[in-house]
Design goal:
The complex is a heterodimer of chains A (363) and B (266). With 363 residues, chain A is mainly alpha-helical. Helices cover 68% and strands 2% of the residues of chain A. Chain A has one domain. Chain A has a two-stranded antiparallel sheet with strand order 1-4. Chain A has a two-stranded antiparallel ribbon with strand order 2-3. In chain A, a hairpin with a 2-residue loop joins strand 2 and strand 3.
Chain lengths: 363, 266
């Protein structure tokens, strides 16, 4: 506990971020529900969900930063963990639809009726129960990360080779999920949700609550990661990042260090995906596209990798810019994003975090 | 080298037991290694006694670093045997298991963790938990703080303990690495060119430090610098083209006609 307190004390920007998140978790429901629509500070439910989405991306960026910034594993496939968490949540929400679907089948989701399936595939069993579905949000991405990481880290695949196979992994999963036969709704994905835990997803109260849960999850995961890196394991991660082979000669199994943090990262990414789906109302295989995973890397690079708070700030800043810019000039966004990345690399190699003076950030 | 060759055949759980009842800590017998047809190590046999300080010298390409790579598990020989004490077959252990068993290595290029402070470098090297979960929960106790303080004193870096290792000079990094070796509490220290890039004064201090280690540890020093080797006043093994050319004290070695022909081309 003391180690955590001193770690937070020396991470003042992290404390600023946590304060903002906690204030937002309280303020947004008030601004959305209690203030009348005519009030200048009133937040519409569209804005609430939009900001909720940004925070999900912030959580996703945090999950990438703990493997890339802290351990030097450049994953170009982190979207796969986000997407899997999202799909688990999507399956849960789909089962909540019940007989309110277009075809009115009490058990089968619409797309299965459309495909003339007569029974639920085994991997959909139990997902109508939150107590089964919600743990799977962390477990499914974590399991993929465990299997992938065991193979990759034990065979000592590092650097650009590792990045390429993470990219291949997310691409492979995307192709698989595009197939109708796989049983996840094909290219339409899962959508048409009604409620979560019995609350109507379109109600302003539910949206405000989802926002607050997202903000608190982000704050909680931030503290968890900060605590993790304030232990001796944090020192070990830095050592593995900077001189992995030397660490082996000290008697540590570096592959297991990397695997542990990678699995944790995947679980956090899965949580981000699961919070994202009810707020945007859809999950489809496009989330697995390699481009999405590369965007996450850009958020982290732009915010400042290795700082944790920088990753969150980068994700929010880029996505606010994306929303604005795609409003004016939809075709131009990718050029803008590429330009931002080039400019950051040239002028802010340590990202926006560089702009904060050391004596302020405390690091 | 293919992946399968590097894969450990055995992963030691706890620290294996070292048996040096015959007085020998390291047995290397008829080792052979070739890289793309070049024989880096050629039928090499070498025995290191418990508590001994031994210097290994030899011209470039004699196989000194490859020898250390074999002992620490970085390179697998094509044939031959390597035993640590009577019971530990080094060829069946991976790098981490060998380090845990009690062989520490200082590299030719000093490799310390530049983004960590001097004290944190020592903390990581300290003998203790190595499993992820145990490392996560590890805290420095009073005894361990004392050990770090003693080691800092021994390597003369106490005033720099809170500095990042990236700010150290080359010689200071060499010492820090020797300090990290000591924290591992190894039975056998392999020290690759410790005096490189040092001033004469630093070299003398390093020599004293290494001599003071012999006895409680066995120390194998690979070195080019003859003055430094002389200052260690220890048995010398000369390697040439991957095998042992001569063994003995430095004076008799320097008179050996075979050695002279290799070194001086006579």
């Amino acid at each position: 506990m003391n180690a955590l307190r001193s770690a937070l004390w020396s991470d003042r920007m992290g404390v600023v971020l946590l304060t903002v998140l906690l204030l937002a978790a309280v303020w947004v429901p008030i601004a959305s529900l209690a203030l009348p629509e005519s009030h200048p500070l009133h937040l519409g439910s569209y804005s609430v969900s939009l900001w909720g989405k940004y925070l999900c991306f912030g959580l996703l960026a945090l999950s990438l930063d703990i493997v890339w910034g802290k351990l030097g594993i450049l994953s170009l496939g982190h979207g796969v963990f986000f997407g899997l968490g999202g799909y688990v949540m999507g399956m849960y929400l789909m089962r909540q639809v019940g007989d309110r679907g277009v075809y009115g089948d009490p058990i089968l989701p619409d797309f299965m009726v459309f495909l003339n399936w007569d029974a639920l595939p085994w991997f959909w069993y139990g997902l109508d129960h939150a107590w089964i579905a919600f743990p799977l949000i962390l477990f499914v991405p974590g399991l993929l990360a465990f299997v992938f990481g065991s193979l990759a880290f034990r065979s000592r695949v590092t650097g650009v080779y590792l990045s390429i196979i993470t990219q291949a992994m997310t691409y492979a999963v995307m192709l698989a999920f595009f197939r109708n036969e796989l049983g996840f709704g094909g290219n339409n994905g899962l959508t048409g949700f009604f409620d979560i835990l019995g609350f109507d997803l379109r109600a302003d109260t539910t949206r405000a609550a989802l926002f607050s849960v997202t903000a608190l999850s982000l704050a909680g995961c931030y503290v968890l990661c900060r605590a993790l890196f304030s232990t001796r394991l944090g020192l070990l991660c830095t050592a593995v990042r900077d001189a992995e082979s030397r660490v082996r000669f000290l008697g540590y199994r570096t592959d297991r260090v990397k695997l542990s943090v990678f699995v944790l990262s995947a679980a956090i990414a899965g949580l981000a995906g699961a919070l994202y789906v009810p707020q945007v109302g859809i999950i489809n295989p496009g989330e697995f596209s390699p481009l999405n995973s590369i965007e996450i890397v850009i958020w982290v690079a732009l915010g400042g990798r290795g700082t944790l708070w920088g990753a969150v700030v980068g994700a929010v800043v880029v996505n606010v810019a994306k929303t604005q810019f795609t409003g004016w000039l939809p075709e131009g966004w990718l050029f803008m994003l590429g330009g931002l990345f080039v400019l950051t690399t040239l002028y802010l190699p340590r990202g926006l975090a560089m702009l904060v003076p050391k004596r302020v950030s405390g690091s | 080298m293919s992946v399968s060759q590097r894969r450990p055949l055995q992963r030691a759980g706890g620290a294996p037991v070292l048996d040096t009842s015959h007085g020998t800590v390291l047995y290397l017998e008829s080792l052979n290694v070739s890289f793309d047809g070049f024989k880096a190590i050629n039928d090499l046999s070498l025995y290191i006694n418990d508590g001994e300080l031994r210097c290994i010298i030899g011209p470039n390409g004699a196989g000194k670093t490859t020898l250390m790579d074999i002992v620490t598990g970085k390179t697998r020989p094509d044939s031959g045997q390597a035993w640590f004490g009577q019971t530990l077959d080094l060829l069946r252990l991976d790098e981490a298991a060998i380090a845990t068993a009690g062989i520490g290595r200082k590299f030719q290029q000093p490799t310390v963790f530049t983004e960590l402070t001097v004290a944190e470098n020592l903390e990581l090297a300290m003998a203790g938990p190595r499993r992820v979960w145990d490392v996560l929960r590890a805290r420095l106790g009073g005894e361990q703080r004392d050990l770090i303080a003693q080691t800092l004193e021994r390597i003369g870096l106490t005033p720099l303990r809170a500095q990042f290792a990236s700010t150290l000079s080359h010689g200071q990094k060499q010492w820090l690495e020797i300090g990290m070796l000591l924290m591992q509490k190894p039975r056998l220290l392999l020290v690759d060119e410790p005096a490189t890039g040092m001033t004469h004064q630093e070299m003398a201090q390093t020599g004293e430090l290494l001599c003071s280690l012999a006895g409680e540890h066995s120390v194998v020093v690979v070195e080019h610098d003859m003055d430094f080797v002389r200052s260690l006043d220890s048995p010398v093994t000369v390697l040439h083209q991957g095998s042992v050319l001569a063994e003995g004290d430095l004076d008799s070695i320097q008179k050996d006609p075979l050695v002279r022909s290799v070194y001086l081309g006579e």
